[in-house]
Specification:
By secondary structure, the chain is α/β, with parallel strands linked by helices. Helix 5 packs parallel to helix 6 and helix 9 packs antiparallel against helix 10. It is globular. The chain has two domains: 1-91 and 252-345, Isopropylmalate Dehydrogenase (3-Layer(aba) Sandwich), CATH 3.40.718.10; 95-242, 3-Layer(aba) Sandwich (Isopropylmalate Dehydrogenase), CATH 3.40.718. It contains eleven helices and twelve strands. The strands form two sheets. A ten-stranded mixed sheet has the order 2-1-3-12-11-4-5-10-8-9, with helices on both faces. Strands 6-7 form a two-stranded antiparallel ribbon. The structure holds adenosine-5'-triphosphate. Adenosine-5'-triphosphate binds at residues 13, 17, 69, 243-244, 262-265, 267-268, 274-275, 278, 316.
Length: 345
């Protein structure tokens, strides 16, 4: 029976990369029934709500979502859609594997990279607690709790153990934020003691940025509070070819939403130029998560092959292809690999 998945195309380049990804996932042979729902500016204009009730109802039923980027209007006091979904569904792990694709020459990195970022997803300065004390003075509250820090630290170490990885680096600014980042570090140390086979290292966030640029190959698993995770993710994405590449997953105990690291990219929206690789690689993570291992492997292999050939890449990674041409190349590669097997069956 087909597995139901909630599809949230989103805003900006979201619908373009979502349509491309759905085509690729279907070509890869996954048995999926998409439940398409709208969230974001588009939904606000049409239904008067950034996240209509159908979105929650669908995610409650399917428990798994594939999501394009969504825009939150800056004015009007709206809470970010991603923050709202993560809080409501308890998606406390933001998981972002940062890997080089074959053949891709990036300006900053000529060594193969394979690092995984674990970003705490529910608190820190993203708690949204800001107020004006007196005119001209505002305060934003950085919330760090023992519970949230323990569970993200544990998620990173469990992943490291499960995948046979060797090192976890906690990123912080505890020299300045002694209490908040100090608590985060204390939790990471406590969890690290349960995983003696895994090296544990701590790096101050500014130093981490420099080390990531100078010696990115030294990193393995990284764990950090929410805001540093936002910034380090984009830095790491830049190392492997930009935001068009890097996938992500937001995971909790009961639900998971898979989405690219990039935003709505309004500068290229609607022009057929967006690179759908990041959402396609997010779909690979999703397929693995739901046990569709063969379609996941096919789609990942096809992406790697299209990058290795380098003939149908989008503009952000130095090519000239449109979103559709790139997607057609991925689908053609899947078909090329699948056909002989099917003839032989
Ligand atoms: P947000 O605040 O929602 O994260 P943003 O405007 O800060 O959004 P992005 O929307 O992620 O950031 O885009 C940053 C830059 O990267 C833009 O110039 C955009 O064109 C480019 N970019 C992002 N995603 C892609 C993609 N999938 N394909 C091609 N270019 C992209």
């Amino acid at each position: 029976m087909a597995r139901q998945i909630t599809l949230i195309p989103g805003d900006g380049i979201g619908p373009e990369v979502a349509d491309a990804t759905v085509r690729a996932v279907e070509a890869a042979g996954a048995s999926i029934e998409w439940e398409r729902v709208e969230a974001g500016e588009h939904a606000l204009a049409e239904y008067g709500r950034l996240i209509p009730d159908e979105v929650y109802a669908s995610l409650e039923a399917t428990r798994i979502g594939l999501k394009g980027p969504t825009a939150t209007p800056i004015a009007g006091g709206h809470q970010s859609i991603n923050v709202a979904l993560r809080k409501k569904l308890g998606l406390y792990v933001n998981f972002r594997p940062v890997r080089m694709l074959p053949g891709l020459k990036t300006r900053y990195c000529d060594v193969p990279l394979d690092m995984v970022i674990f970003r705490e997803n529910t608190e820190d300065l993203y708690a949204g607690l800001e107020h004006e004390i007196i005119p001209g003075v505002v305060e934003s509250l950085k919330i760090i709790t023992h519970n949230a820090s323990m569970r993200i630290a544990r998620a990173s170490f469990e992943y490291a153990r499960h995948e046979g990885r060797s090192k976890v680096t906690a990123i912080h600014k505890a020299n300045i934020m002694k209490l908040s980042d100090g608590l985060f570090l204390k939790c990471c140390r406590e969890v690290s003691a349960e995983f003696p086979e895994i090296d544990y290292q701590e790096l101050i966030v500014d130093n981490a940025c420099m080390q990531l640029v100078m010696r990115p190959e030294k990193f393995d698993i990284l764990v950090m509070p929410n805001l540093y995770g936002d910034i380090i993710s984009d830095l790491a994405a830049g190392l492997v070819g930009g935001l068009g590449i890097v996938p992500g997953a937001n995971m909790g105990d009961h639900h998971a939403i898979f989405e690219a690291v990039h935003g709505t990219a309004p500068d290229i929206a609607g022009k057929g130029l967006a690179n759908p690789t990041a959402l396609m690689q997010s779909a690979v993570l999703m397929l693995e998560h739901i046990g569709e291992r063969e379609p996941a492997a096919r789609l990942q292999a096809a992406l790697r092959q299209v990058y290795a050939a380098g003939e149908h890449l989008t503009g952000d990674v130095g090519g000239r292809a449109s979103t559709a041409e790139f997607t057609d190349a991925v689908i053609a590669e899947i078909a090329r690999v699948r056909e002989p097997a099917e003839v032989g069956d």
